[in-house]
Each structure stands twice: as C-alpha cells, then as structure tokens.
C-alpha cells in the first residue's frame, strides 16, 4: 500500500510539472520587461511623457497630454510601446537610442499596432474580450493594399482610431464608436475630391441615411447596421461579391424565400446577387413596398409592361396596399379611442399580432408567389379587423355608458324640480297662513 | 296597507314623534349659514362616497398609480364618472368654503360667542386644502408630479416652518416615489381622521353658538319640518345636479404619466385657488425689501394666515376694520386670479 501511495505522488508531481510547462510557453525578453514595469511602475518612469508634457511647444507637448487620457496609458505600454527606444533615459540622448521611431511611416503603422493587438496573450491581460485579428483583416483590405503601395489617402489604424488620443471603441467620443462611424467613413468616402482617383461613387452615406437601417439605428443601435455592420470594421470588403451573404446574415428568411422563388435561377444565370436586383444596397428602403409596375417599383426594372408577369406584380401590389390600408386604419382607430381616454383590453396582443403578420408579409413577398402571400395577407387583415372591432366595441360601450350619465342627470334634475316645487308650495302656504 | 306598515315603522323608529317635534320648532329661514353647513356636509359625503369607490381600484405606488387611474377612467364602467365627480366635488368644496369664510369674515359672524367656530373652521379649510394638494398628487401624471414639486417648493419658502412643511409634503427632501406614498397615506387616513375630529369640535361649538330653534311664530321663521328640510334638500340636489353636469360635460384629462427624469416643462399650472399666488410669484421683482420675493410673498401670506386665526380676538365692537380688511383681501385675490387667467 505505501508503495502504491508513493507511485501516486510521483505521478501527480509529474502531471503538475508537465501541465505547467505546457501552459507557460517560453517568455521573451519583451514580456519580462513589461512585467517588471507593471510590477513596479514607480521604478520605471515614463520619462518621455514627463519630459514632453513640460515642453513649451504645443506640437511637442500635445502627444504627451493626449497619451495621459488615452486607453494606452499603462506602464506595460508607455510611449515606447509604439515608438521603441529607451524610456528610462531622462536626457535628450534617449532620442538617439537604438530602434527609436520618432515618426512611424504611414504604411508601418499597422505593423506597430499589430505588434501588440495580434498578440493574444498580451491583449488578454487587458481585455479578454478584445479580438486579435484586426491586423490580419486590415491587411486583406483595399485600404491596406493602397497604403502599402504608398497611397497616403488610404487609412491606416491611426487614421480611424486616432494616434496618441486613441480611446476605447465603446467610448462615446471615439470616432469609431457605432454612433460616429458613419461620419468617420463619410469623411473620406463622401469627399468627391478625395475619392476622384478611385473612380467610385460618393453617395453611400447619403443613401444609407435615407435607409430603414438608419431609421432603426437612430432608436436602437444594436438593431441595424452602419457601414461596419456590413463591410466589417477592418476587412473593408467592398461587399460586392458577397452581398447575399452579408444581407442574408440578418435577413435569413428573405434570402430563403428568394432562393425558392422563380427569380433564383435567372439571377444566378445573370450573375446577380439575390438582393441587389430589387434593393439598393445602401438605401435599403424596406418601408416602401417595392412590388408593382409603378415607375418607382422594383419589378419594372427588369420586366416590361407587355409581359404577362406584370399582372401578377400588380395583383401582389394591390394585395399589399390593401393590407397596409386596413392595418393603418385599424391602428388609427385604436389610437383615436386611446386618445379619448378609452382603455382597450386586448389591444396590445392584437397589435403585436398585426405587427408580426406584417413582418411575415414583408418576408414572404420575396417568394413572389401570390398564393403564399395571400395566406399571410389574410392573417394580417384578420388582425386588423379584430383591432378595428375592439376599438369600435370600446366606443359603443362608452356611448352606452354616457346614456347612464344622462339618466343620472335627468333623475337628479327631476328630484330638484320636485323639491323646488314643494318649497314654493310651502312658501305659499306660509304666506296664506300669515 | 300603508297605515299598518307606517305604524309598525313608527313604533320602532319614532319617526312620527320626531317629525312632530321638528314641525313645532322654527328657524330663521333666510339665514344662509343654515344652508351652507348642510351643503358642505352633503359635498363631503359625496366626496367620501366617490373617494371610497376610487380607492377600490387605485394603486398607491409610482409604478402603477397612473395606469390604475387610467384603468378607472377607461376600463371600469362609470369609473370616469366617479373620478370626475370626485374632482369637481373637491373644487366645489374649496369654493364653497372660501365663500363661507369670506362671508363670515365680512359679516363679522365670528364675533362672540362664535370665536372658536371661526378657528376650527379655518383649521378645517386648511385640512381641505391639504386634501386637495395630496389628491392632486395621486394620479402621478406629469402635472401631478409638477404640482407636487412646485407646491412643496412654494410652501418651503415659508419662514420658520417652511423646510419642515416641505419635508412633510414631499415625504423626504425631494419629490420621489415616496412623495406619492406619503400623499396617499395623508389623503385616505391622516386627513380624514383630522377632519372628522375638527368637524366634531366645530359641531360642538356650533351647538352652543347657534340660537336655539324657537317654538314661537316670529316673522321670518319657518318650521324645520318640512319647510327648512325641503329647502335644504333643494340646495343639496342643486349641488348634485351641478356636479353631475360638470362631470358629464366638462372633461378633466388625466394627462401623461409622470416622467421623473424628464425636464420640467414651462408653465406648470397651479390649482385655480392658488393662481393669484402663482401670478404674484411670477411677476414680482427678484427681491422685495432685500428679501427674495418668493420668501417675502409666502412669508407675508403666512403672517396673514396666522393673523386670520386670531381675527375674532382683534375685532372691536362697532369697528368695521376686520370686515374691510377681509373684503380687501378677497378683492385683491380675485383680481389677481383674473389677471393670471387672462
């Protein structure tokens, strides 16, 4: 038994030793330096920052001031995190230190940032949720390719995120914050002068601002994409080839129905994506019903009026506009009743149902199959009808109740008249007696 | 059929003999005081009855208060009527008491031996105003919230007692959800108990102060039964008709639910009987005699109220100063209110 116990102990010791060796890969000199600095920051002052912060020239002082407020202010990073050199030399000689990069070249920035941001083990110490694929994705982008070719118009990391003043992406003031990112992209992409060499349009932001995406984004930032929602933040894919996948990532059902529809085959043969033949990729106006042969409708883009198919399109359009009219009328009616102080029991669930059916209808439209569409349209109409009935019922109830008011008023008036008559009668009798 | 039933009932209730006794007694039929008391009692009963009905469905917490009032108005048969009656009735009560107060003051009806009736009556008036204030908070609409804030802020300007009064009105330092609970407790428990006690005292003084009904047929007197009671009934029924008409034809909108974090919109409108104070505060220069004008005006008001309690004791026989001052005060308040409305 004791022998067995010894064996078990030995096995355990071996297991612990080997597992720790596996978990801790060899540490570099850089890691050790970082750890030393983090452990005793007071012993390793950031002399670059202290010196630059005291300089009289604003241009030289600003980086140190900005750094103080940036997300990179940390003894493990410091100025040398990007600029290299020796941070512990308090003299001007530090500028001559080996490897010191006073002004990183435009196309070298992504490598400097990536030096840390692609290092999963290092990033994990700060923010375990942060991705480490930004540099990889950026190097795939057109931005990166142009930048590498010496085009200073093509943005590097710092052009979007800021350099010394870089802040967290979720800080409201960050230029890359979802609220600000449209403006950020637009700064270049809406600038006709700047975009001229690239022979591309400059109306993307304008079109997006008119889209349902923008409308939804205004109230719920998580519910609708801005530029980066479709193009990715770093990959900067001109989404052309992958439109279907990009749209389909959120609009799954719609994509499924298009693929079942008679449009699927011709779109494929023509090399078109499933979405863009009808929808503008930036304007994406789902609020307007696109179906029909009217001038601004989608069907007319490919089909001509003498085709047989136009009657089907018109039929679907009529069906849709009918549903829309009835649902608007029902909503209006409920709203009016509410404004009149009526509390309508069951209105909430009915309105939810109506909304659900309308969403379904918007989805099933992509089959362009009028039988399927009609089924959903009927369900939506049924919900509208019920909502209408509820509002009418509430109004009728209120009218009946008002009759009760008048009855009470009449009754008390009658009583008043009787009593007044009696009082007058008594008065007369008293006078007679007097 | 009727006679035996009447006899049976008389045996048990003594109605016939009471009627005979009342028929033999006479009161001065043209004295308005005889009707105002009855009218106020009737309005109070109406208020209690409608209040009890509202109490059945009202939820006294900030999360549900507004929705529960909306439910009373929209979801319960005749709930809107009951709520309207309660609101109009409260306005009529305040109006009647104000009229009563000033008519007593101007006619100097508070003179001996009715001094304590005046004091207890004035106390009751302020209890009534407290009812109105707390009641206005209960729907927890945006207006209710603003009234709670502005009302307690104005009361807080009072010298000495101001901060304490504001603390009580708010149920804390700020208007919060605790204010609502506080107002509810006062409205349905504290104030009714206080008013009941005060009215009891008022009635005790009344019994001693009123001239005993006579049995002599002097001119101007009428028998209590049926003449006086029919007249009183007519007055009460007229009030009922008025209340129901107002409730039927003039809407009292509930307004949107209070949004405590929302910015206060301009022009929070006070109840009609405080319009003149509001107008004064708005139009006064920032400082009066070196004191912030809000403090000055509210302080002056507090002094007037304090003096009003002692009005019967300042009064000198043959002097009309108190009556003239009361009339002047009423005139100024009415003029300022009209000015505020315009």
Question: Rounded to an integer, what's the Rg of chain B over CA atoms?
Answer: 23 Å
- How is the CATH topology of the domain at 309-433 in chain A named? Butyryl-CoA Dehydrogenase, subunit A, domain 3
The largest sheet of chain A, given as strand count, sense and whether it forms a barrel, is:
none
The H/E string of chain A reads HHHHHHHHHHHHHHHHHHHHH
CATH topology tier name of the domain at 31-258 in chain B: Cytochrome Bc1 Complex, Chain C
- Measured between the Cα atoms of the first and last residue of chain A, the distance is 131 Å
Description of the molecule:
The complex is a heterodimer of chains A (434) and B (342). Chain A has a domain at 309-433: Up-down Bundle (Butyryl-CoA Dehydrogenase, subunit A, domain 3), CATH 1.20.140. Helices cover 60% and strands 0% of the residues of chain A. Chain A contains 21 helices and no strands. The longest helix of chain A has 64 residues, at 370-433. With 342 residues, chain B is mainly α. Helices cover 70% and strands 3% of the residues of chain B. Chain B has 14 helices and 4 strands. In chain B, strands 1-2 form a two-stranded antiparallel sheet. In chain B, strands 3-4 form a two-stranded antiparallel sheet. In chain B, strand 3 and strand 4 form a beta hairpin. The interface between A and B is medium-sized, with 24 and 28 residues.
Short key terms for the protein model shown above:
heterodimer; A: 434 residues; mainly alpha; Butyryl-CoA Dehydrogenase, subunit A, domain 3; 21 helices; 0% strand; flat; B: 342 residues; two-stranded antiparallel ribbon; 3% strand
Secondary structure blueprint with pairings:
The complex is a heterodimer of chains A (434) and B (342).
Chain A: H1 2-23, H2 29-39, H3 47-53, H4 58-69, H5 80-83, H6 109-117, H7 120-126, H8 134-140, H9 142-148, H10 157-161, H11 181-189, H12 192-195, H13 204-210, H14 212-219, H15 227-231, H16 243-250, H17 252-260, H18 264-269, H19 309-339, H20 347-364, H21 370-433
Helix pairs in contact in A: 3-4, 6-8, 16-17, 19-20, 19-21, 20-21
Chain B: H1 2-13, H2 15-24, E1 26-28, H3 33-55, H4 65-75, H5 79-107, H6 115-137, H7 142-155, H8 162-170, H9 177-209, E2 221-223, H10 224-249, H11 275-283, E3 287-288, E4 291-292, H12 293-309, H13 311-314, H14 321-341
Antiparallel strand pairs in B: 1-2, 3-4
Helix pairs in contact in B: 3-5, 3-10, 4-5, 5-6, 5-10, 5-14, 6-7, 6-9, 7-8, 11-14
